[in-house]
Amino acid sequence: MTSTERTDVLVVGSGFGGAIAAYHLAAGGARVVVLERGPWLGAQDFEHDFKLGSSYTRAFDFVVGDGMSVLGGNCVGGGSVVYFAAMPRAPRFVFERHGTIGRRMWPASVSRDTLDPWYDRVAESIPVTTQDWNDVTYAGGLWAAACDHSGRTANPVPVAIDNAKCVNCNWMMAGCRFDAKRSLLTNYLPAALAHGAQIRPLHEVQRIERNHDGSYRVHYDLIDEEDYRIRYDGGAIDAKIVVLAAGAGATPVILQRSEATLGAMPHAVGRYFSGNGERLNTAVLNEDRVRDVLGLSRGDGLAYAANQIGKGPTVANWDRLDGSLPEFTRYSLEQLYFPPGLGTILAQVADAAPGESTWFGVKKKEMLRRWQSWLIIFQMIEDANEGVFGPPPAKGNADRVSQQMLGVGRLKYDPAETTLRAWAMADAEVKEILERDGLATVTAWTNDVIGAYTVHPLSSCRIGDDPATSALDDRNELRGHPGIFVTDGSAVPGALTVNPAMTIAALAERAIPGIVRAAQDRGVDVTYGAPAPDGGTSGRRGVADLLPSLTRR
Description:
About 25% of the residues lie in helices and about 20% in strands. It is built from 14 helices and 19 strands. Strands 1, 2, 6, 7, 8, 9 and 19 form a seven-stranded mixed β-sheet that branches. Strands 3, 4, 14, 15, 16 and 18 form a six-stranded mixed β-sheet that branches.
C-alpha cells in the first residue's frame, strides 16, 4: 500500500481567490498546499515578445467554446500576472441587480456598503493607485479627448501599479519584468510562502472525492512544462478543507467531473456563466482629423500613430454607470491595449458589402495598411448569465489542441436579447464618440471566428441566497458539500460593468473568516486575523465588526 499525502487545506489555483486564501490560512497556522496548473514564472522569465513558446503563450489559457471563448491566466499568480492591473470597485447598483431570475442575484448580506471594508483590506495588501493625467498613456489621452469632444467625460482608471518602478515598456500583458505591476507574485504569494505554504506548479487537479472521515481526497495530474498536452501520473492529497480557485472556466469543470465521487452538485454548478458583458471595438484613426479636430500632436509630425499602446486600460468613460438607468442599459467604455496579432485578425472591416467577408480580403488588407493608427475600446455591459458548461472533458478544463495556450472547452453561450441590445447600445456610443467629425472608423470585433470572448469569466459557481440559482451560500461554501469553498471569479453572481479583479479579491477576503471557522470545526489549529502581507493592520480593524456574521456555526 502507498500512503496518501495529507494537509489541512488544499487550495486549487493561485490567482486572486487562491493566493488570498493560501496566505490567510497559512498565516493563521494551517498547513496549506497550493496546486497550480501552470508554470511558475518570475520577473526574469517574462519575455518582450509574442512568439509561440515564450512566456506569453506559457502564461495564458485560451479556451474556445460554443459561442464564447475565454482568455485567462495559466501560471502561478493566475490572472494577476497577465491582467492590466485595473482595480476599480463595482458600482453600487451592481449589487441590486436581478438579472433574469426575478430576484436580487447577490446574497442579502453582500452590498457595496458591506463589501467596502473588504475592498479596503485588498487595497492595503495590493496598493491601488489613483492615476492622474501625467500617468496616462497617449492612447488614453486620445480617448479622453474624444470623449470630451463628444460632450462626455473620461477618467483615469485606478490601478495596481508602482509608478516609481514602471518604465512604460508596453509589455504589461505578458507579465512585468520590473515588478512594477502589483501582481500576486509581489504580495500575497510570497507572504504565504513565508508562512509555510507550499506552491506546486504544473499540477492540474482532475477531481475530488469524499473520504469516510469527512475529509476530501484531491486527485491531480502532472503537466509537462513545455507541452501542456502531455500528462504524467500525478497523485492525490487528503485535506480537511478544499478551496477551489481554478477560475470560472475550470472550477465548475472540476466539480462536474467530481460528481460521481462527491455526490450530486448544486444545480447552479456550471450554469449562469457570465463573460462580464465584454466586447471590443476597433477604431482606425484619421491622423489629420486627430490633429485638426482634437488638436493633438506628439511633436514629431504625427498626431497619434498608436503611441504607447502597450500599457493597460488607463482611461475609462463611466457616464453610463448610473444606478437610475434600467438594468441592461448600463456599461463602461475603456481604452484598452490588445496584442496586435489577435487585434488584426479579429477586427472587422467597416464598409463591407452584403455577403462580403468583414475580417479578410482586399478591404481588410487596406484597413491593416492603416493599422499604425488604431485604438481599441473595451465594453463591459450587464449580460444575462447565459453560459452553460456541458459534460466535462476526460481531463482538464479543455481538450488541448496546441502545445500551449489553446484548447476546446465545453462552454455554450447563446446571447440573450437583453445582452445583444446592450452590446448594440454600447457599440453605437463608441461610434458616436469616435466617428464624430471624421475622427475614426469604428467596427466591433467579429464574432464570426470564435464567438463572444471574455478576459474576465465570472459566475459559473456563484454565491447567493436561493439554492436553485446559486451554487454557494453567502460564505462561499459549496451547497451540500461542507468544507469545500469557492473563492475565484466563478463566485461572483453576475457582470460588474467594470474590471472585476478588485471585487473577486474582496469577496475572497470576505470568505476567509468562514473558511477558518470551518477548518477549526474540522480540527485544524488555525486562527483568523493576519495583517496585510506587508504588516498593515488598518484593514483588519475595519472588518472586525463583520466577523460574527461570517463565523456563525
